[in-house]
Design goal:
single chain; alpha/beta; two-stranded parallel ribbon; two-stranded parallel sheet; globular; SWI2_SNF2
Amino acid sequence: IVDRLDLLEQAKNEFSKRGLCVHEAENKEDLSQKLKNSRVFEGPQGNDEIIVVNIQKFKAPNEDPSSAPKEIVSKTELQEAAKDSHDLQRVFIIDEAHRSYDPKGCFYANLIECDKTAVKIALTGTPLLEDNAQDKATKKTFGTYLHTYSYAEPIKDRPTLKRQLAI
């Protein structure tokens, strides 16, 4: 689950490079149909499949493009779509989890609630550390961190250089 078109393309390319057969959910109906399929997917070459979703495609037509997505896929619709998948283990990977996430009633919340047994992995480079008025603290929403990588570590690992001021 991504929230920008460039991240959608990046995710599709990276998953393809790793041998997955990548599908893109084009709209809420397409995602619902894909969730209703309760068998494990395999591509034509026997590769496991993954569905990549751009959250922006789920905005209502009259919604401001820069606003957070409103609930246009209901929790009930998604639970109904996922209910007959008893032998299927879903994994939701939510990129940029700190952005546009509202735990009360939006698409993300409904998607992650539709399958209570799904593994949910949230990725973010800039987690919201403090509870705020909208109750969006990343750790509160998604749970404890599996791994952290501080700002100092890439400098030590050398993919990032220290900033030096020239006078």
